[in-house]
Amino acid sequence: MxxxxxxxxxxxxxxxxxxxxxRKLGSYVTSDIRFEEIIENICSSKENDCHNLxxxxxxxxxDWFKKKQKALVSELFSDICIAKAKFCCPRNxxxxxxxxxxQLNGHVCSGNGNCDGEGTREGTGKCKCNREYAGDLCSLxxxxxxxxxxxxxxxxxxxxxxxxxxxxxxxxxxSCLSCKSGWKFNSETSLCDDIxxxxxxxxxxxxxxxxxxxxxFACRKCDAACQECAGPGADxxxxxxxxxxxxxxxxxxxxxxxxxQDPSPCSTGQCVNRPGSYECQALNDKNKNNKKxxxxxxxxxxxxxxGVMILCMLSSYFAxxxxxxxxxxxxxxxxxxxxx
Length: 340
Fold this sequence. Notes:
Layout: H1 2-8, H2 18-24, H3 32-39, H4 48-67, H5 75-84, E1 93-94, E2 99-100, E3 103-104, E4 107-108, E5 113-115, E6 127-129, E7 133-134, E8 140-141, E9 145-148, E10 157-160, E11 165-168, E12 176-179, E13 183-186, E14 191-194, E15 208-213, E16 216-221, E17 226-229, E18 237-241, E19 245-247, E20 253-255, E21 270-274, E22 277-281, H6 283-318, H7 322-339
Antiparallel strand pairs: 1-2, 3-4, 5-6, 7-8, 9-10, 11-12, 13-14, 15-16, 17-18, 19-20, 21-22
């Protein structure tokens, strides 16, 4: 709406220059034509909610446009959106009655969060605290944070503890008062030590191994050669190997090359070994691949011969050695014939 006023007044409306407007715009100032020009571009074609709201408030907007528009344009919000449409609330208020948001020392939610529904006719008015803060008024430090000393006695500023601390008195690791899950307090060092969950039994499934991380653990898949394992790789297998693998001299699980067995596992076709298995590949598939490879090589050779032949013919032609030109053509054709 404000943009529409500026556009239709050539940038001079809304700045207080009402004398210029009266002299230059005349009756156009409060005309229906100007009103239509302003509101036609307020909503985009896809903003259905905007169009519905504009249609509901068009009468109020037109009344304000005719009678009150010489007041500051900023009053449009309070006069239409708050007072008549009852769609919005003033700053720092919320809900159907525009109730006051909770404050401490003159700051909504202590300045450390947001009032739910502020500026609207909705919401609960409860404080939604920033991650560092807690409490009904966001005036306390959340878990994992400690209060810093500031020059403002009316404002609490919270900083993050060391990542192992649940509660602390400062940023250092030895400032922990209690530890997060996955850590345990060491009374001798005053530090939170990592708990190695992998030393506990049954943390992962049979085909996985446990990997300890800071404050937690992760389950990783064993190598394909292992049914059970103590870590990554085929050399960390425990007990029997997976099907298609066997214990080697170093006790690791190695792939069995089924294609080396006698008789061959493939009654027809070519045996191709795979990790833990094998594949019988039909001979015609192999022949197709060989034929394609041969055709590719032939194409390269033919292209080379044709290129050389053309180069020789051009050279002899421009040297007026027509006999050599014909000879180059015949020689090249013979080579192409032999390649086929």
